[in-house]
Amino acid sequence: MPRLTPLLLASLLATACSNSSSSPPVPTVVVPFATEAHQPSGSAPIYLNDPILVSFSTQLDLDSVNPSTFVIEEFDATGQPTLVAVPGTYRLANNGTMLWFQPDLPTDGTYANGGLRAGRSYRVHVTDNLHDVTGQRLVDELTFTFQTRTGLGPAGLFRDRTVFGPARRDFTVPSIPGAAPFSELRLTFDQPIDPAYDNLLWRIRISYQNPSGPPGAYLSVPTTLELERNTDLEAVIVVRPFGALPSATTFHVFVAPTLRDLAGQDNTLTPGYDDLFGTFSTN
Prior knowledge:
By secondary structure, the chain is mainly β. The protein has helices spanning 6-21, 153-157, 197-200; strands at 35-39, 52-56, 70-75, 88-93, 98-103, 121-126, 142-147, 168-172, 185-189, 204-209, 218-221, 223-230, 235-241, 250-255, 276-281.
């Protein structure tokens, strides 16, 4: 039998104490990837700019979301499928555990080219081909239905999310290769705009001082207007002047307080509203 030296004995005792005090490994708990809640969830018709929300137990991989894994079907008043696509934008919320689908907003005066349309029924089917950021596939498929409002005019169809009407966010005079200077102006607002023709007509104008008139005598520039982008976050209106603009002239871009947002709210009662949106000058 080998002789136990003091050093060997101390090493054996330390090993024994270490083994006796160690605890068993804690098993890893894997949370299944499952649906938890959704909106809309009631029977009341929703506004055309309301989002569709689905909450999950773990963080969703947004790259797995597309029209074949998150299916939205539209039905007409008789219950027949229209086979019309429902365009919109996918986003994440609540630290990645909520899918936020924001339907596209209309840019035409009939409100018919948005993601959701008035007086329709919709069915949402969340398939098990969705997966979370760890690669887990959805363990439960989800199907729910909702209806949209049939109100007349913007106030009856769209939810008003702000207190006042459209406010300036940005004013740009982009440089377009091969085009005349100032051939396009872009006015960016902080919220979506009512795309009705009567809302854009005469609400935005470009004016300049009449060189042969007294101070304050302005001439207007003929223009065309295009609602280039209309989202729940902002709107962009493109203003295109007709013909060549006078040289060495300062132009003022005015937005009337009667310009309405998507829900029909304007700035006629907005304290301190300034209708001068921006200025630019030609050489």
